[in-house]
Amino acid sequence: MKKLLLIPALLLGSAVIAQEYNYEITPVIGSMIPEGNLNLDNQFLSGVELQYNGFDSLIKPELSFLFTNNVGYKDSDLSTDISRIALNGVYEYKTDSIFTPLAKAGLGYETFSRHDARNKDSAFLNAGVGTKIALAEDIALKLEAVYMLKENDREWDSNLALLAGLNFAFGEKSQPVAPASEPVAEPAPKPVVVAPVVVAAPVDGDDDKDGVLNSKDKCPKTPAGHKVDKDGCTKLVTLRVNFETASYKVDAASQPEVRAFAEFLKEMPNYDAKIVGHTDSVGSDKDNQKLSENRANSVKAFIVQEGVDAKRVTTEGKGEKSPVATNETKDGKAQNRRIEAELIKK
């Protein structure tokens, strides 16, 4: 079912617009369903929509330009070009799926290159609904139906525009920095990996609660939550690397934890590591496999940049095949977009 939903997007175009981008531009094409004395049947319409997301508001301003060429008048040999400009407010309903429903309303102005009958340049009201279908982090397919209403010599004329276009987002928003005088939020907990230590006088019990008795535990202070081998030493660490949907960039909040893991590898040359990338279920299996590989390679590049020999670090991508939580909720998807580091004794 997931693959069937992606087919229209693959055929028609692409766009993901998220709040972390300041600007959007959408070249559009479509057709008009008119009322009044203009012969608009099967007439081609083109234009562009510009949206600004920089304001801290639910309603985003949009400037729209639409153009219809060589429109014939009924009962006349005359034709005209019609230009429309509108300023709208756009509301987008954020979801965890590839679909972003939207609604908009605003005021515009319509001009004619040649006038006939009762048509004249005038203002109009418009309102519309639509959706964006995400195909990449900054590209989406945008589909809209926009209703336009204007007054002509005490009579009301209306047009319905059906539009489709590619929506491109750019101008990534900078992350807010806390003032120096104010407390800064604590980073995510750093992984603590304890080097193997042979206990001289083992005792019964399991002080570090890793499932290995003290008498057999060569690493008696393993941090809680670590997966250990038969000797009680860490063999798997889940790095808390935050990824946005469709992204493999290691964000600033996750860098201290990855840096701490790199320091451990430098201090323990008898360990190698395999970095394993995972994704949530948004997107196709093929795209998620490639994305998981990119995430693992991105973390490896960071570790190597911190001074670890690249030969000691290998990577693997498992796509969406090994979830640790449900993909039906936002929190579950965030847990599944993760990196695991498997430690290998030499």
Q: How would you describe the overall organization of this protein?
A:
The chain is built from four helices and 16 strands. The protein has 346 residues and is an alpha+beta fold. The chain folds into two domains: 2-172, Porin, CATH 2.40.160; 227-345, 2-Layer Sandwich (60s Ribosomal Protein L30, Chain: A). It has an eight-stranded antiparallel beta barrel with strand order 2-4-5-6-7-8-9-10. A hairpin with a 5-residue loop joins strand 5 and strand 6 (79-92). Helix 2 packs across helix 3. The two termini are 45 Å apart. Residues 1-19 have low confidence and may be disordered.
Rg over CA atoms: 29 Å
If classified by CATH, what would the architecture of the largest domain be? Beta Barrel
Structural class: alpha+beta
Order of helices and strands: HEEEEEEEEEEEEEHEHEHE
Strand content: 35-45%
Dominant shape: rod-shaped
The side-by-side strand order for the widest beta sheet comes to 2-4-5-6-7-8-9-10
Q: Report the end-to-end length measured between terminal Cα atoms.
A: 45 Å
- DSSP summary, beta strand count: 16
Examine the coordinates and then state which fold CATH places here, giving the name of the CATH topology of the largest domain. Porin
Number of helices: 4
Whole-number mean pLDDT? 81
Number of domains: 2
Helix content: 10-25%
Largest sheet: 8 strands, antiparallel, barrel
CATH class annotation of the largest domain: Mainly Beta
Q: Give the low-pLDDT segments.
A: 1-19
